[in-house]
Design a protein that fits this description.
With about 300 residues, the chain is of the alpha/beta class. The chain has one domain. Helix content is about 45%, strand content about 5%. The protein has a 4-stranded mixed β-sheet with strand order 1-2-6-5, covered by helices on one side. A hairpin with a 4-residue loop joins strand 5 and strand 6. The two termini are about 30 Å apart. About 20% of the residues have low confidence.
Length: about 300
């Protein structure tokens, strides 16, 4: 991506010196009274990384667990809100990508929604952090917390994205950030709350199906962002994004884990679905083309 002339976002909060988390070591689970071993944390990290889900949902530790996910009505956990001291290429890349989402969505909201766009903050942390959705560990990857409307990111995820998922490249990393911003847009528009309410009323299978549509919509919104930033893209960037979307499909992850592929357990969509909806946003540049909830075929 050509980001040299892109302005860096001022909505980045540095909480890397804060510590946070639970107990300073392993992540305490509400089951069995024990802690997760590092092997289990890595597995959870693989499943949560770049999937747009609050990783605590995978642990059953947010908002009571289950298909309801985090309680978006709980008061956020506030930390030191100091502007990030950008340090190195990773920090500045994140700041420039977030800046591009702010510029893009301010224009798109005005044109397609008729409202001002309230940009989220992006919290940089190292190791562990307390969020409005509860404590989180860096091994769980980036996530969006609707309770405090912040994106949380340990910049070490760049290495994980390349090494664990075989999806290197700056656009692949930017797609992940744009996906999390897509969840912020869903929260701003009230979509996330409607999904949470419907999931609480339905069965686990119904909740999973709704989650798939929500995640695919966030993929599509990431594509809308990319459409309006084609001038920043270099040859091969779109392929990087599609490769990342393919790598994190539920069917691909289950196949790589050596488990039986179970569509009823899907919460984020298949590789083909994720690529399709990312491309739908990329091709159209319009939010109304991202209505995955009305789509008969995903």
């Amino acid at each position: 991506m050509r980001l040299d002339d892109e302005e860096e976002s001022a909505n980045i909060v540095d909480r890397r010196g804060e510590g946070g988390g639970v107990g300073g070591g392993g992540f305490r689970l509400p089951i069995g009274g024990g802690r997760m071993g590092i092997g289990t944390l890595i597995i959870v990290g693989v499943l949560a990384l770049v999937m747009g889900v609050n990783p605590l949902e995978l642990l059953g530790a947010a908002g009571g667990g289950g298909v309801g996910g985090p309680d978006v009505g709980q008061p956020p956990v506030e930390g030191p809100a100091q502007p990030a001291a950008l340090d190195g290429a990773h920090d500045r890349f994140i700041a420039k990508v977030l800046g591009s989402t702010e510029r893009t969505w301010a224009a798109v909201f005005q044109d397609q929604v008729g409202e001002a766009y309230p940009a989220p903050k992006l919290v940089l942390f190292a190791g562990a952090v307390n969020s409005g959705c509860g404590p989180a560990n860096s091994g769980m990857g980036p996530f969006y917390c609707p309770a405090d409307r912040n994106v949380y990111l340990d910049s070490s995820f760049f290495d994980d994205l390349s090494r664990r998922f075989g999806a290197p490249g700056d656009f692949a990393a930017a797609y992940v950030i744009a996906h999390e911003v897509g969840h912020h847009i869903q929260t701003v528009l009230g979509i996330s709350e409607q999904v949470q309410q419907a999931r609480r009323r339905g069965s686990e299978a119904e909740g999973n199906a709704l989650s798939v549509r929500q995640e695919l919509q966030a993929d599509c919104l990431a594509g809308v962002w990319a459409h309006h930033n084609r001038d920043l893209l270099e040859p091969g960037d779109i392929e990087e994004g599609l490769r990342a979307a393919e790598a994190i499909g539920d069917d691909t992850l289950q196949r790589q884990a050596g488990t039986r592929i179970n569509p009823e357990s899907f919460t984020h969509g298949t590789s083909q679905q994720r690529m399709r909806w990312l491309k739908a946003g990329l091709d159209s540049g319009r939010m109304d083309r991202c209505d995955t909830f009305a789509a008969r075929n995903l």
